[in-house]
């Protein structure tokens, strides 16, 4: 391989690993340098991503006419979709875990909450601090899940309190994803 070919391949690799970050009508994402955004995720417009956040492959964060705020240490796993209504906002607190394929639309997710895989949190809903929303659950428009409760089903209904063993398990998972940010920055390479 010639130096020119190696250089072109290297430039191509750098280009393919760049994050797909887009400005829209002068609305630009703001991403903390310690966050990690997968090169197959899409971040558009007024999206604010805090320190130590993990934004997984295939996630779509669309702040084109609304605002999305994501607190430090939050994990937005693969395939998650987050959007906000015009001139409104989706607010996700610190150390939230958003499971694979979940959807959040114009809602508030308070710190330390967990949204299960494929769950949906609809307009103006609030998931309280430390609450857990089960896999596939639907938190309806304007619905409120109280802090420290587990909600499951369609529509979501409180099934009981978050127990110490749940907190311990999810605390471990949150630290795992915070650590993944640094690990991905150091070792993720296209082959």
What does this structure look like?
By secondary structure, the chain is of the alpha/beta class. The protein has a single domain (3-187), classed as Hexapeptide repeat proteins (UDP N-Acetylglucosamine Acyltransferase, domain 1), CATH 2.160.10. 20% of the residues lie in helices and 34% in strands. It has 2 helices and 20 strands. It has helices spanning 3-16, 164-187; strands spanning 21-22, 30-31, 36-37, 42-49, 54-55, 60-70, 75-76, 81-83, 89-92, 97-98, 103-105, 108-109, 114-115, 120-121, 126-127, 132-133, 138-139, 144-145, 149-152, 157-161. Strands 1, 2, 4, 6, 8, 9, 11, 12, 14, 15, 17 and 18 form a 12-stranded parallel sheet that branches. It has an 8-stranded mixed sheet with strand order 3-5-7-10-13-16-19-20. Strand 19 (149-152) and strand 20 form a beta hairpin. It is globular, with a radius of gyration of 18 Å. The model is unreliable at 1-16 (pLDDT under 50).
Blueprint (SSEs and pairs):
Layout: H1 3-16, E1 21-22, E2 30-31, E3 36-37, E4 42-49, E5 54-55, E6 60-70, E7 75-76, E8 81-83, E9 89-92, E10 97-98, E11 103-105, E12 108-109, E13 114-115, E14 120-121, E15 126-127, E16 132-133, E17 138-139, E18 144-145, E19 149-152, E20 157-161, H2 164-187
Parallel strand pairs: 1-4, 2-4, 3-5, 4-6, 5-7, 6-8, 6-9, 7-10, 8-11, 9-12, 10-13, 11-14, 12-15, 13-16, 14-17, 15-18, 16-19
Antiparallel strand pairs: 19-20
Q: What key attributes describe this structure?
A:
191 residues; alpha/beta; UDP N-Acetylglucosamine Acyltransferase, domain 1; 20 strands; 20% helix; disordered N terminus
Q: Name the CATH superfamily classification.
A: Hexapeptide repeat proteins
- Derived from helix and strand composition plus strand pairing, the structural class reads alpha/beta
How large, in whole angstroms, is the Cα Rg? 18 Å
Low-pLDDT stretches: 1-16
Distance between the termini: 16 Å
Shape: globular
CATH topology: UDP N-Acetylglucosamine Acyltransferase, domain 1
**What sequence of helices (H) and strands (E) makes up the elements?**
HEEEEEEEEEEEEEEEEEEEEH
Q: Give the percentage of residues in beta strands.
A: 25-35%
């Amino acid at each position: 391989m010639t130096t020119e070919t190696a250089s072109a391949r290297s430039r191509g690799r750098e280009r393919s690993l760049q994050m797909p970050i887009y400005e829209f009508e002068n609305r630009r994402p703001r991403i903390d340098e310690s966050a990690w955004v997968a090169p197959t995720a899409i971040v558009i417009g007024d999206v604010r991503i805090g320190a130590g956040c993990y934004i997984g492959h295939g996630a779509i964060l669309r702040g084109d006419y609304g605002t999305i705020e994501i607190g430090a240490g939050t994990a937005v796993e693969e395939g998650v979709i987050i959007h906000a209504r015009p001139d409104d906002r989706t607010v996700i607190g610190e150390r939230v875990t958003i499971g694979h394929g979940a959807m959040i639309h114009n809602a508030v997710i308070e710190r330390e909450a967990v949204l299960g895989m494929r769950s949906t949190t609809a307009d103006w809903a609030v998931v309280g601090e430390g609450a857990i929303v089960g896999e596939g659950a639907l938190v309806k428009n304007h619905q409120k899940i109280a802090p420290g409760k587990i909600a499951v089903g369609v529509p979501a209904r409180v099934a009981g309190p978050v127990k110490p063993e749940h907190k311990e398990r999810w605390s471990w998972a949150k630290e795992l994803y915070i650590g993944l940010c640094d690990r991905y920055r150091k070792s993720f390479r296209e082959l």
